[in-house]
Every structure is written in structure tokens, then in C-alpha cells.
């Protein structure tokens, strides 16, 4: 079975966050984007969920890159959820750490994130 829908989670690797912190930020982005999409793009959210909820973790190099992704997503009317950290552990309060995009049709999401590398 192929996947027509996906969610992308993009994390800032320039902040030097620990692996655990990156995972926590990715979870915040995934949950936030899912909850927003369930309300704002319910049809796509249901199809994504029914296909298995594909998620892809990608890397960004800067705050500016995340801001550009959010802007592109807004232009294409793709749900996006920006994460600002509370600042209790590794980064200052308000630091933008991640963005969740979608879920939506993979071909639409790829217009925003298609050039980003996978996190390895």
C-alpha cells in the first residue's frame, strides 16, 4: 500500500539540542499539527490517519529556514504548527525549535519540504 498523505516534522539542528530534546520537540510538533489539521483539514487528517499516519523527520539549519517553511505552507494553505520552547531545559524561553507540517497530500507537502534532508 502506498502513502498518499504524510506529515513532516522539521527540527532545527543548529541549536545543538540533545537527542532526547529533539525527540520531545518532534512530538510537540506532530501532536500540535495533528490536532490543528483535525480541525482545519479534517478530510486530509482522516485519510492520513487511515493510511497509518506517515511522519517524516527532516532537518533545518536555522530559524530563518523554519520561518520560510511556515510562509510557504501558509501560501499553499497547508496546516503548520510552529513550536516555541518553554525554556525549562536546554534552550532559552521562546526559542523556535521545530515545525509540524500537515498532514496533507504528500505532493503538496513536498512543495514545501522537498529539498530538506532526512534526519539521520
The beta-strand count equals: 4
And the CATH topology? Bit1
Average pLDDT rating:
96
Major β-sheet profile = 4 strands, mixed
Q: How large is the share of residues in beta strands?
A: 15-25%
- What's the gyration radius in Å? 13 Å
Broad shape: globular
State the name of the first-level CATH class: Alpha Beta
What's the arrangement of strands in the largest beta sheet? 2-1-4-3
Helix tally equals 4
Write a structural description.
The protein is α+β, with helices and mostly antiparallel strands. The protein has one domain (5-54, 66-113): Bit1. The chain is 44% helix and 24% strand. The chain has helices spanning 19-40, 42-51, 63-75, 106-113; strands spanning 5-12, 55-60, 80-84, 96-105. It has a four-stranded mixed beta sheet with strand order 2-1-4-3. α1 (19-40) packs across α2 (42-51). It is globular, with a radius of gyration of 13 Å. The two termini are 25 Å apart. The mean pLDDT is 96.
Amino acid at each position: 500500500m502506498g502513502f498518499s498523505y504524510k506529515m513532516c516534522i522539521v527540527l532545527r539542528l543548529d541549536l545543538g539540542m540533545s537527542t532526547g530534546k529533539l525527540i520531545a520537540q518532534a512530538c510537540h510538533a506532530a501532536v500540535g499539527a495533528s490536532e490543528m489539521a483535525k480541525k482545519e483539514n479534517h478530510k486530509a487528517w482522516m485519510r492520513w490517519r487511515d493510511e497509518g499516519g506517515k511522519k517524516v523527520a527532516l532537518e533545518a539549519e536555522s530559524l530563518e529556514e523554519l520561518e520560510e517553511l511556515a510562509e510557504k505552507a501558509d501560501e499553499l494553505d497547508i496546516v503548520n504548527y510552529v513550536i516555541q520552547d518553554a525554556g525549562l531545559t536546554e534552550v532559552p524561553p521562546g526559542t523556535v525549535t521545530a515545525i509540524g507540517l500537515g498532514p496533507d497530500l504528500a505532493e503538496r507537502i513536498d512543495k514545501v519540504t522537498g529539498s530538506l534532508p532526512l534526519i539521520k
